[in-house]
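To whoever is on call:

I kicked off a structure prediction for a single chain this morning and the downstream step that reads the tokens threw a length-mismatch warning. I double-checked the sequence; it's 402 residues and nothing unusual in it as far as I can see. Pasting both halves so you can look.
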Amino acid sequence: MSHIVVIGAGQAGASLVAKLRNEGFEGEITLLGAEASPPYQRPALSKAYLLGEMERERLFLRPREWYENNNINLRTGTPAVSVDAASQTVTLEGDEVLSYDHLAFTTGSHPRTLPAVIGGELDGVFSVRDLADADALKPEFTGGRRLLVIGGGYIGLEAAAVAAKMGLHVILVEMADRILQRVAAPETSDFFRNLHSGHNVDIREGIGLERLVGEDHVTGAVLSDGSEIEVDFAIVGVGIYPATVLAENAGVACDNGIITDAFGRTSDPNIWAAGDCATLDWHGAQIRLESVGNAIDQAEVVAQNMLGAEKSYAPKPWFWSDQYDTKLQIAGLNLGYTDVVTRETGDARSHWYYRDDTLIAVDAMNDPRNYMIGKRLIEAGKSPAPSVIADPETDMKALLRS
């Protein structure tokens, strides 16, 4: 009876082992996680969990008993140290060795941190990537304190929103010309800049961090424009990078992620990868999709292919972000867009991305109806004329039938 080892007990790892059992696999399954907790949802860490609106137990994707009942050997607090692809073994911390017939990397990603030379190792400087980060941050969120957020991506903006709602004084600095520059059009950046400004968040764009100051604990910051500010703590949200060290050391091909083919297989025929750590083919280019939806969908296809399905993975990208009372929902990928069309209906707003005449993505703010319509149009390969989308009289649902 074969043994499948999955390294990485996050959303992708949990989805993969569940799918293996659902597909009828009766062999041995071991799921290895470096953290002490069973697999949990991460998006809530920077939102509901920090706000105190979600209990710790509700974060868990499944209770620990579920893994026992499904004969899945969940080993938390058990980091893998190395993988030997030739002997098909995994060495764990403590020198225990596991043999595998097939192995999957679902190791996720790590937050980028600040170098020590500019104060990145001072106490009071946090990332928001795992449960331990969120637990360490919670006591810091006390009304009246001063928070510096470094980075104007979704993680930084979500943390700023939580802090502002809890009565903290928030300054957010973004080195690029505008917040969300890497992932969204200027129209979406403008929307969220206005949203945060309306909640008294001081957003400073085109301004970087020169250094954090303090002896042991951060007490202030010097910004690239020469200004100095006092802070009680800081959150760093300057992106993530894929966790590929184990794969690289095992000789698996990597390039900004673990390279996979259409089936999720790596350069080693007995090793697979899924989730944030893995690249995938997107219209002829290898990209990574950093989202819950991709982690689940890609992992489930990999599980089927481990069992011989030979099923190609065709991603259907979607993302979301919650800030204050605004829910942003994104369908598609806006890579290479040439035009953006805005549609407004009451308090709802959506931005539609076109590459020439082709609809490729939608950002919808408090507009779930048009988000779903946009998602279905993109997946069906339909591209209504931009003028039709912009017209408030257009029957959007009718576009799905045309």
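Update from on-call: the warning came from a stale cache, not from the record. Cleared it. Sanity check on the structure: The chain has three domains: 3-110+240-307, 113-236, 325-400.
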